[in-house]
Design a protein that fits this description.
Blueprint: H1 2-26, H2 35-45, E1 54-62, H3 65-71, H4 74-92, E2 98-102, E3 107-114, H5 121-140, E4 144-152, H6 158-169, H7 172-175, E5 180-181, H8 183-190, H9 199-211, H10 214-229, H11 233-253, H12 264-272, H13 277-291, H14 294-297, H15 300-318, H16 326-333, H17 337-348, H18 352-370, H19 375-381, H20 387-398, H21 402-414
Parallel strand pairs: 4-5
Antiparallel strand pairs: 1-3, 1-4, 2-3
């Protein structure tokens, strides 16, 4: 009996793999299978989508994804994504047949069947996903943003809808975590012809910085971010970076040392790694406030945090430079090698040399499996000049040679 139970378990697992394969195929750009062949395929793979009617794609994007990656183990992350699909799918299935797909990164998908006669499908689907957001966040203390595409009359149109849902999900920047994003909700922003915020508001901000009027800075910053929120996504992102640069330049002209969070070397990373404008506004406002608060600006713990952050970012950007070293970074940051080494080691338990080697080895491992390059070419691309030294470092970290690593990973991808 036990062997029979194992047999059926393996059979079900195989069916799930095949089902996931065909659901993924539905999203392929050139999916085209005659309707007569789909019926037995859907029945065999237990795909619950209707064979006729309309379809939509719902993209469910995990919020605070960087924190999610750090907080949970690989197994827990897989379990949570599985639960996200199940919770959303069950709630939506009250009215709409659907199938879920784990895309393995920061999002999962639902492919939803939409009855042709259902004129209010978009509002109905948005309400069901809002209910799923509530259930999911209460159980797992994790939130997600939902992006609902338009609908298509054919399965062949699902690829374009997936792309649309992905593009829409970027507007989480303006709409915030836990939002439900639809084409209708974005119409004003996506069609907005303005490219940036008003020059008058930027001038006002510069004047408040010159005068040191911290209270007024907060008000004008709120007005600036309100204007930015109304732009399309790409213009909003560019405007935020422009605003941060303008604030830093105004501080420097006013002979005020920018707080650690507003240093030119790290502000881009702080802005780009945040998922919402509310978070970015807090960073910029906090930086301006702290720039005029000597007690905070001179807090060694706060300063050390941003020194560590700046070093890490600089290494990730410049690992290809063969001259990258503790001394070159210390020279760039106008700090002694001894002080920089101690600050970084105390905060991370890593030496800067270990950081540089670790980043280079990670990039080398990616190149070995992603591009058709020789080991020598990979070594050159990651800034290491001694091939023997590279082999020694690589084998110490990965317990195999670069060639063995590339072969093993490529074989795993095939399987």
């Amino acid at each position: 009996m036990e062997e029979l139970h194992i047999f059926y378990q393996e059979k079900d697992r195989y069916k799930d793999v095949i089902k996931h394969y065909w659901l993924s195929r539905l999203l392929a750009e050139r999916f085209s299978i005659p309707a007569a062949e789909l019926a037995p395929l859907f029945e065999e793979t237990r795909i619950a989508l209707p064979l006729s009617g309309a379809y939509a794609v719902c993209l469910l994007k995990i919020d605070n994804y960087k924190e999610f990656q750090q907080r949970f183990s690989a197994k827990d992350k897989e379990t949570i994504r599985f639960a996200l699909i199940n919770i959303a799918s069950e709630i939506v299935a009250v009215k709409y047949a659907n199938e879920g797909i784990d895309m393995k990164e920061d999002h999962v998908l639902l492919i939803v069947g939409v009855p042709e006669t259902d004129a209010g499908w978009l509002d109905g689907l948005a309400a069901y996903l809002a209910e799923a957001q509530d259930h999911f966040s209460r159980f797992f203390k994790v939130t997600f943003t939902a992006s609902i595409s338009a609908k298509t009359e054919t399965l062949g149109g699902l690829h374009a809808l997936y792309t649309q849902a992905m593009d829409q999900s970027m507007y989480r920047l303006q709409l915030g975590h836990g939002s439900v994003i639809t084409q209708e909700r974005l119409r004003g922003r996506a069609d907005n012809k303005k490219t940036t915020y008003s020059k008058e508001l930027e001038t006002w901000l510069v004047e408040t910085i010159k005068s040191g009027n911290v209270s007024a800075m907060k008000d004008v910053l709120a007005s600036l971010f309100e204007e930015i929120a109304a732009l399309n996504y790409h213009n909003a992102l560019i405007s935020i970076l422009r605003l941060a640069d303008a604030a830093i330049e105004a501080l420097e002209k006013a002979k005020v040392t920018p707080a650690p969070s507003l240093q030119k070397v790290s502000i881009g990373r702080h802005v780009l790694e945040k998922e919402t404008m509310a978070e970015i506004e807090r960073i910029v406002w906090g930086g301006l406030r702290d720039s005029f608060n000597k007690e905070t600006a001179e807090d060694p713990d706060a300063l050390n945090y941003f020194v560590v952050d700046a070093v890490t970012e600089y290494v990730h950007r410049n690992y290809q430079d063969p001259g990258l070293s503790l001394s070159s970074i210390a020279s760039m940051m106008k700090i002694s090698t001894r002080s920089l080494s101690k600050i970084y080691k105390d905060a991370t338990q890593l030496s800067i040399a270990d950081l540089i080697n670790g980043v280079r080895l990670t990039k080398a491992a990616e190149l070995l499996i992603q591009e058709d390059l020789s080991v020598y070419e990979v070594v050159q691309k990651v800034g290491i000049t001694n091939e023997t030294y590279f082999f020694s470092l690589f084998k110490k970290k990965y317990k195999m040679t670069p060639k063995e690593y590339a072969l093993q990973r490529k074989a795993n991808q095939i399987n």
